[in-house]
């Protein structure tokens, strides 16, 4: 798999910190085995860095009959390891120490109780003889696996008969492809081969290692029995020990390997991830608006405005009848903090919202690989259960503010209406007085006229006519005002619903994408 690379190599500290953060970000998204492995690498690196860096732990690992223990004795110039022929003889790892001062804590951490000091000038070398990796004893294999994951330098001892064995290549060598800088491969027992066959076997072994991703790993032909190639192997180990860098190279390889395990696919490079939600959110807004009953609310806003307008500016003689009708908006109980009486969403509207949510998740996850894409889609729906209450509050807030406030012209029209009533009353009283005086045969009052029409009649009939005309004109203004209020309410409701959709749907998806982008960046840094 291909990992994104950084332009410059980072320090081991930075890479370990990045790996730890990547593991935390991957929690619940990637396989738990890869996450736990990354955390184990970080913990192991923290422990190893606190131990002696003046010593290099080198492990001899191999199969039964490979001559590993014989090579251990040849390198150490001792007979410390018991040599077997066909059955495993090494049950617990043992160590030969050149320059043991300060090595105790490191060996304690490696849990190697069998320790032997060897005279020599290879100060700082800790040579470990491991049990056979193909031992019939499960405890032996577990001991090998534990130490292979912890030592600084690995020397794989193979023999001419089993150097192509799939068990060692598939279980150990291939998974350690990133550890080529801290690995040596030895073909032991070359003395058993005809001289012309040694080179052919070594070349074949190099080809197998290249197929495992270990091209360039040092490959030596040795014979622990005759000593052939042992000085060259000893010199190679001395060079590695003298550099005092095998431990950090091993940790760096472990970090890169753990980062590769977290990188489960080949996603785009960090920085190319985005949420193309503009077109989708419009469809989502429409679906949410329908499901929340926004069309009903908008119609109620227009009707409520007309209702209140007529109640405030209608003809006072008949306007009281309007007050007997309920306000269409108040009938929906749209108030902050209260549950509205809007009709429940239909099955078709619920299905439309569900489809819109799937579209948002699909669009948001289009640029990321699985299983992160699944996490993004889940995040887009993670707060969908909160939509109903959030939309209800949004509608209540949008309709309880300026949308329902009374315009100033209502007061002017209402005052004009009361003036027409006053004119009617004055005219009526004037006519009643004249009628009473005529009935009592008393001298009448002078009655001015407008043309040929007396003023009392003009006031009475004119006031009534003016009131009706003003009421009719106000109905026209009320209808236009209701349309305007409905458009304003629609705009505010749309903005509120977009905000709810952004908070409960788009933002969780974006946060998950940001988490993935950060994860990709951290993995790239850990692998650098």
UniProtKB/TrEMBL annotation:
The chain crosses the membrane at residues 418-437, 457-478. Residues 58-188 form the G domain. Pfam families: MMR_HSR1 (PF01926). It comes from the Bacteria. Keywords: Membrane, Transmembrane, Transmembrane helix. InterPro entries: GTP-bd, GTPase_Era-like, P-loop_NTPase. This is G domain-containing protein. It comes from Microbispora siamensis.
